[in-house]
Design brief:
About 40% of the residues lie in helices and about 15% in strands. By secondary structure, it is α/β, with parallel strands linked by helices. It has a single domain (about 1-125, about 200-265), classed as Alpha/Beta hydrolase fold, catalytic domain (Rossmann fold), CATH 3.40.50. The protein has a seven-stranded mixed beta sheet with strand order 1-3-2-4-5-6-7, sandwiched between helices. Helix 1 crosses helix 2, helix 2 crosses helix 3 and helix 4 packs across helix 5 (about 150-165). The radius of gyration is 17 Å and the shape is globular. It starts with a helix and ends with a helix. About 45% of the residues are buried. The mean pLDDT is about 95. This is Alpha/beta hydrolase. GO terms for molecular function: hydrolase activity. InterPro entries: AB_hydrolase_1, AB_hydrolase_fold.
Length: about 270
C-alpha cells in the first residue's frame, strides 16, 4: 500500500530532522507552491510534500469523481498518506482549502496531528445570513462558468486578483501559469468542491491546536471568515501576517517563515 499511495500523490521527502512537517497546497496549485518556504525548515524537520489527486504530478488516473466530490475524500487521502509514511503527531501546514481538509482529517484521526497551521483558510466561502464568507452563490457560478468556457482566460483573470501585489506583476504571472497548467476538467470540479464547501458545524470537533495565518486584504477569504474560525475552533490562535493577498508564501515568504517558526514554537 505504501508505494501506491506515495506515487499517487507524488510524495517528496526531504530534511534532516525527525519531526514530520507536512505541507499541503490549496486549489489550483501543486507542491511547488512551497518552494520559497521549505528550505528554512529542512535542517530541523522531516519535510513531506505532496500533490492532491488531480493536481501537479499526482496520478490523474487516481482521481475519482465520487470520492473527490467532497472535501472528505481529500481528507481521506491525507490520512492514507500519513498512514503510508507512519506519521504520528505531525504538524500540517495547509494553504487555503487544504486548511479545511486538514481540519476534517484531524477530526477523524486527531492522533495523527500535533498541530495544524492554516494559511488563509475558510470554513465557508458563501455568504449565509449573518455569516460573511465573501461570495454570493452567483459569484461562484460565474467563476465556474468562466472556468468551463475558457480555462486559460479564467487563470489570467483570477491570478492578479488573488495575488494582490500589483507592484510585482511577476508574482501574478507565476500564479497564472500554475493555474493554467492544471488539468481543466478536474480543476473546475475541485473549484466547485472548494467554494461550495461548508465545515462550520464541525469546527468545535477540531481538538488539535490550530493556528490561523491570515492577511488583512485577501480577495478569497475576508477577515470576517477568519474571525469566525477564531471564535469556533476550540484551540485557535490567530496570527496576522504583514502581507497582502491570498498567497503570502509566494509574495512574502520571509513573513510566512517567521510566523511558522513562531507558531511551531507555541505548541
Amino acid at each position: 500500500m505504501t508505494q501506491p499511495v506515495l506515487a499517487r500523490h507524488h510524495v517528496q521527502l526531504s530534511g534532516q530532522g525527525k519531526t514530520p512537517l507536512i505541507f499541503a497546497h490549496g486549489f489550483g496549485c501543486d507542491q511547488q507552491i512551497w518552494h520559497r518556504v521549505i528550505p528554512a525548515f529542512e535542517a530541523d524537520y522531516r519535510i513531506v510534500l505532496f500533490d492532491h489527486v488531480g493536481c501537479g504530478r499526482s496520478e490523474l488516473s487516481a482521481y475519482d469523481a465520487g470520492r473527490h466530490g467532497s472535501l472528505e475524500g481529500y481528507a481521506r487521502d491525507l490520512l492514507e498518506l500519513c498512514d503510508a509514511l507512519g506519521l504520528e503527531q505531525a504538524t500540517l501546514v495547509a494553504h487555503s482549502v487544504a486548511g479545511a481538509i486538514g481540519m476534517l482529517a484531524a477530526i477523524d484521526q486527531p492522533e495523527r496531528f500535533r498541530q495544524l497551521i492554516a494559511i488563509g483558510p475558510s470554513p465557508c466561502y458563501v455568504n449565509d445570513g449573518d455569516y460573511k464568507g465573501g461570495f454570493e452563490p452567483a459569484d461562484i457560478r460565474a467563476l465556474l462558468d468562466m472556468m468551463e468556457r475558457n480555462h486559460v482566460e479564467w487563470a489570467g483573470h483570477l491570478a492578479p486578483l488573488v495575488m494582490d501585489n500589483p507592484h510585482r506583476p511577476e508574482l501574478a504571472e507565476d500564479l497564472r501559469q500554475r493555474f493554467a497548467a492544471a488539468e481543466p476538467a478536474i480543476s473546475r470540479r475541485f473549484a466547485e468542491v472548494t467554494f461550495m464547501s461548508d465545515i462550520r458545524a464541525r469546527l468545535p470537533r477540531v481538538t488539535v491546536p490550530t493556528s490561523i495565518l491570515y492577511c488583512d486584504t485577501d480577495a478569497v477569504v475576508p477577515l470576517s471568515a477568519i474571525e469566525y474560525l477564531g471564535r469556533h475552533l476550540p484551540r485557535c490562535r490567530l496570527h496576522r501576517l504583514p502581507a497582502s493577498g491570498h498567497y503570502p508564501h509566494l509574495s512574502h515568504p520571509d513573513a510566512v517563515i517567521a510566523a511558522l517558526r513562531q507558531e511551531l514554537a507555541a505548541v
